[in-house]
Amino acid sequence: MTTPRLLATLLCAVAVAACEKNAVQVLPSDTLYTSRIKFFNFGVNAPGVNFYADDVKMTAVLSATGSEATTGVAYGGVGNGGVYSSIAPGSHTMTGRIAATTDKDLPVATITSAIADGKYYSLYMSGFYNTAAKTSDGFVVEDAYPEEIDYAVATVRFVQAIANAAYPLTLYAANTTTNDTLVIGTAVAYKSGGAFMSLAPGIYNLFARYPDSTANKIVRTSVTLSAGRVYTVGARGDITITSTTATNRPFLDNTTNR
Fold first, then answer.
1. Which pLDDT tens digit goes with each residue over 65-119?
2. What are the residues whose beta carbons fall under 8 Å from the beta carbon of 143, sequence distance 6 or more?
3. Distance CA 94, CA 103 (A)
4. Are 217 and 208 in contact (CB under 8 A)?
5. What is the tens place of the pLDDT at every residue in 209-225?
6. Which end of the chain is more exposed for a tag (fewer CB within 10 A), N or C?
């Protein structure tokens, strides 16, 4: 690549990072694509993985030696520090591949998804890791939050990644100051995401329930939702676990989209 062309590419990447609160991971390409994707490892008991789109590695973890770590994106984690990665529009075969030395680069989850130009997405490794077959489930949802930022409200949606939930789950948010309780969209089935909705900024207790039930299946307290920000609350884990400390307990993850 010539020096002027390299400089132009670098300036383009800097400009995008400066305009977005969530900086973009740029693919090794001359083109800065307007489509974006995040990668979550919500596969219960799954190993740490690196995520790929076709043969392009989209996530990796740097070790203290400067080499790629063998830990990858661990269970409950999101790739690239939670920032979106640039991805070309079109159909892609996404894989989560083992990052450890043993079974290095073995695909444990394979998800084929169409990526539209200019849209944002999240990929979830989900369900339960099969230790014999060395496989896990997965799915992709579009992150269709409003393009215009409303600095008076927080914007939130719910994604359901718990495979053994007996019914779809509904997410509720209870404001700890006003005691107002809001329903975040409608009941969401496994491998699905609800619509983004607006609510007043504040500190909330979040809880998920089965439809027509008053029993909380998952609870997370004191979650700050700030004005002008967009959030995804993702349900992961094993719905049958009652321990409050077990790694695979049902859990509500809160990740900032913007």
1. 667 788 999 999 999 999 999 999 999 999 999 999 999 999 999 999 999 999 9
2. 36, 38, 119, 120, 121, 122, 232, 257
3. 18
4. yes
5. 999 999 999 999 999 99
6. N
Domain final position from 122, 142, 162? 142
d(CA 161, CA 43): 8
Determine the longest span between alpha carbons in the chain, in angstroms. 64
Question: Is residue 96 located within the same domain as residue 158?
Answer: no
Q: How many domains does the chain have?
A: 2
Non-local (6+) Cβ contacts of 248 within 8 A are 44, 45, 237, 238, 241
Do 9 and 129 have their domain in common?
Answer: yes
pTM here is 0.86
* Closest by Cα among 71, 14, 80 to 48: 71
Which segments of 116-213 are extended strands (E)?
120-130, 135-142, 154-160, 169-175, 181-188, 192-193, 197-199, 202-209
Domain of residue 210 covers 154-256
Distance set, CA 189 to CA 120, 160, 169, 194 (Å): 21, 6, 6, 9
Sheet harboring 181-188: ordered strands across?
A: 181-188, 169-175, 202-209, 218-225
Query: Residue 205's domain is classified under what CATH number?
Result: 2.60.40
